[in-house]
User: Which sequence fits this backbone?
């Protein structure tokens, strides 16, 4: 780990540039859209399964500064997860699928095992809040869309739901870059105050303690190969260095 951090410090790269402010505004709009919709439903009724609901669209500059039209929608799936938002997927729409338009699309998955009343607060700021969880998955999926190669692919590779499948998934180059985005997005808002509070004994100590405040880092790190871990550390180091924190 220490060697990986030293490599990161010497050859620091950075996550794909995304307009995080614009993404937060989009997440805020979508959280309010979900909350307004939920307010019209019986409060104790479970969302249940639904394959397509609550369409939205967004004009975004995500590829080489050029605007592109992104079509999005929500689905709901019953699950044991405690989260309101259980995932998302970015994909290139099928030209013959008239339900999904645009140059790229994002499908956001809501927890169908939750009652509608749990989705009423679109303003909550914490990690358990709807707005935070929507923003978190948008950062990941827009990283994919921002990669020109992703938009050129006709098919998205499917990974097996097994330990080996998870290792393959978390170490695929596009996922490494997308999770790097999420990890950076989770740690940077608190990095400065965190450094003052914990009083780290070294750069390595600071970075590693800060990383362990990221839910996404704790999710992916057990599956990362050394090269993938070093790439994420490079991105994290670059952002901390740019902020004058390392």
Assistant:
């Amino acid at each position: 780990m220490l060697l990986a951090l030293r490599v990161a410090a010497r050859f620091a790269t950075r996550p794909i540039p995304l307009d995080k402010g614009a993404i937060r505004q989009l997440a805020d709009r979508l959280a309010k859209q979900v909350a307004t919709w939920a307010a019209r439903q019986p409060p104790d009724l479970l969302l249940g399964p639904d394959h397509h609901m609550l369409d939205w669209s967004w004009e975004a500059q995500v590829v080489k500064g050029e605007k592109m039209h992104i079509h999005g929608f929500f689905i709901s799936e019953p699950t044991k997860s405690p989260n309101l938002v259980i995932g998302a997927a970015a994909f290139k729409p099928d030209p013959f699928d008239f339900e999904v338009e645009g140059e790229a699309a994002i499908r956001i998955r809501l927890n169908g095992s939750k009652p509608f009343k749990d989705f009423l607060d679109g303003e909550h700021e914490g990690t358990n809040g709807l707005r935070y969880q929507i923003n978190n998955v948008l950062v990941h999926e827009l990283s994919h869309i921002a990669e020109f190669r992703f938009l050129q692919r006709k098919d998205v590779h499917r990974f097996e739901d097994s330990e080996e499948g998870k290792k393959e998934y978390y170490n695929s180059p596009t996922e490494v870059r997308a999770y790097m985005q999420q990890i950076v997005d989770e740690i940077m808002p608190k990095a400065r105050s965190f450094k003052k509070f914990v009083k780290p004994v070294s750069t390595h100590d600071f970075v590693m303690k800060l990383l362990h405040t990221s839910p996404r880092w704790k999710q992916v790190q057990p599956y990362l190969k050394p090269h993938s871990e070093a790439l994420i550390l490079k991105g994290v180091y670059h952002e901390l260095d740019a902020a004058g924190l390392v």
